[in-house]
């Protein structure tokens, strides 16, 4: 990494809930709302956005722990803002406090950990698994 990430560093990601973000069982009276897996995807990208400016060429991040409470439903077409703030650095592992809000309320909160990795090294490990199959 170029320099050191600091506690308090913030990353954000914003999106509008689209068809592909909806739960896939929205029928029989179930409203068309944001599904948890997509919410987590955007929260992880908010955390990653906090780290991206400090990554060296060939470095990337992977999520290693996620602890999210999905607190409220968000309908199709709503705007969502995800925010991740660094709260702990332990070598290559970075812990974030994450939260998401729609136009009305907080819809999620929790913690997320990313690990800074070397992409080539990860690719080698994956290749070994592929060859074993």
Q: Looking across the biggest beta sheet, what order are the strands in?
A: 1-3-4-5-2
CATH level 1 name: Alpha Beta
- Class by alpha and beta content: alpha+beta
CATH-derived architecture: Roll
Describe this structure in words.
With about 130 residues, the protein is α+β, with helices and mostly antiparallel strands. The protein has one domain: Roll (Thiol Ester Dehydrase, Chain A), CATH 3.10.129. Helix content is about 25%, strand content about 40%. It is built from 2 helices and 5 strands, in the order βαββββα. The radius of gyration is 17 Å and the shape is globular. The termini are far apart. The mean pLDDT is about 95.
Tell me briefly what this model is.
By secondary structure, this protein is an alpha+beta fold. The protein is built from 2 helices and 5 strands, in the order E-H-E-E-E-E-H.
């Amino acid at each position: 990494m170029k320099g050191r990430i600091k506690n308090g560093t913030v990353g954000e990601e914003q999106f509008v809930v689209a068809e592909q973000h909806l739960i896939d069982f929205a029928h029989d009276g179930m409203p068309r709302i944001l599904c948890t897996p997509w919410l987590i995807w955007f929260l992880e990208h908010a955390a990653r956005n906090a780290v991206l400016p400090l990554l060296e060429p060939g470095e990337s991040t992977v999520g290693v722990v996620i602890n999210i409470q999905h607190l409220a439903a968000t309908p199709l077409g709503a705007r969502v803002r995800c925010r991740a703030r660094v709260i702990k650095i332990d070598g290559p592992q970075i812990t974030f406090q994450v939260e998401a809000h729609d136009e009305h309320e907080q819809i999620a909160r929790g913690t997320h950990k990313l690990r800074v990795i070397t992409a080539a090294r990860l690719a080698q490990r994956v290749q070994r698994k592929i060859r074993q199959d």
